[in-house]
Structures are given as C-alpha cells and as structure tokens.
Amino acid sequence: MNTRGWIALLALAATAMATWLLRGDRDTNDETPVANTPVERGYYMIDAHIFGTDDDGELLYELMAQRALQTASREPIELSGIRVDYAAGNGRWQIEANSATLEFGGSQLALSGQVVARRADDGTVGAVAVHTETLAFNPEARTVETDDTVRFEIGEGTLVATGMLALLDEDRIELRSNIRGQFTP
Length: 185
Hints:
This protein is mainly beta. The protein has one domain: Lipopolysaccharide (LPS) transport protein A like domain (lipopolysaccharide transport protein A fold, Sandwich). The chain contains one helix and nine strands. The radius of gyration is 30 Å and the shape is elongated.
C-alpha cells in the first residue's frame, strides 16, 4: 500500500473512532418518545379580498389588501396596501391606508398610515375626502372613528378637527374638538 492509501485508511479510522466517542454508550433501544404537539401555523396571502355581509346577507363591504399575514392562529392579522369599499347606508365610502390590523375574532379594523376616506358626490353635499393618520373602522357598528387630526375636503372648502366619529348608515360625522375651516362662497 502506498503512502496515500495509508493516509486515507488512517483518516477513515480516525473518523470512525470520533463518531464512536461522540456517540458514547447510548443504548439504541432506549429512545425517548417525541411529544406529538401541534404546530401553530399562520398564513400569508397576496391580493386578498374579504367580503363582509350584514345580517340579511347583503354586501356591506369589500376589503382588499395587497398583502395579509397572520404569524400564528389567534394572532392579529397584519394587512398592507388596504382599500375598503363600504356600500351600505346612505352613501358609498372608499377607505385607503398603508396598513391595518385586525385582531383575532374582532370586527374592528385599525387602519394606519396616510388614511383617506372618500365619499362620492351624492348630489347633496358634493364629494368628501377625509385625511388622517389612523382610523378605526367597525363594519358591524357601521362606524369610523379617530382621535387624531382629521382634514376634510368638502367641495372647495377645507375643515380641520381633532377627533371624529362617523356614523356611516346615518351619513353623519361628529367632530370632537379644535374645529376650524375655510370655505369659499
């Protein structure tokens, strides 16, 4: 046998010896059973569409998200690239936001990041756009609410306030404080 053969044989023997030493005196018949526990899994969706209906089965809203992520069951659902079309009540509203969170089992959608809610011109007031940083949309209660600063664009006028509650079915908006506005005749 040449020198290379002896070196290869010695390397193989050293590997076998190291494996035997690291393995120790474990008895192969004494295996510990592995617990059979369920794995908590979440989900990830792209271009998600969620439809909500009222008690009579009529379409109440459609929620579209570029991305939806739930890391584990019973965890909040994180959404991004949000648009909500709300079709019930006296007017149609469209709400857009950078992101939103929906708590597990909850009905309130917490929108954040450049939130804009728009109502089309219904022939009475004109088009309305509401701008804010956070907004809580509760489709069951048919409300939209925030404690942040809101800016309304109503026709040619602008109205700014701190805090708002919108009752969507009644087509009514209540402003909370620091209300100021400018309207051109």
